[in-house]
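Sorry, any thoughts here?
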Amino acid sequence: MPLAAWIYDLGERIFRGKISQERAELLAFLGNTNHKKLLEAGAGTCRFSAFLKRCFPYTEVYATDISREYLARGAKKADIETVLCPTEELIQRFPSSVFDIVLMVDALHHHADRIRALLNVFAVLKPGGMLVMREVDRDAPGFLKYKLIDKIDLLLSALQGLKYRAPEYFNTSELQTLLRLIGFCHVEVKPLGRDALILCKAVKPLPS
């Protein structure tokens, strides 16, 4: 049994109530995704993309990550297409303007090049398409607990032979500014009121 993926998903069983709350928050933010094409970038073991596929079976769901082990486990959770690919290279693996929704849950801060990752997300979204992220605000109360979580990520990377890079976190203002500079509009941020977490929604503009 792949150990890293098993440990990664162990929290889902231990903190079942918390995960259920997080899924409900995400559903309220996303709405019905049936008949849409959705990508979860940096999906890990596809905890959220698989859940959305089960909730909305007419959604065409893709998931990307840099961990082959995580994606193999995620592919068993629901009828989703998994693709081994860093977010920084999405445009090399997918056509431009192809997804209605790109989802990133606790993922952006792990990327080696966060700006390039967001540029790639922008490129693969359809005009009018939506980026939905859950992120950590480094200036919000509760941020310091992520220093401990980062140590767990270091262990999981080592178990898979993956190069570990310490996460870098934005605050809310920085994230909003960056998204607008990349070209997104209707940027909306909702603090969740716990654990320094925020939900962020941004739209790729329609052609003028």
About this structure: The mean pLDDT is 90. The chain has one domain: 3-203.
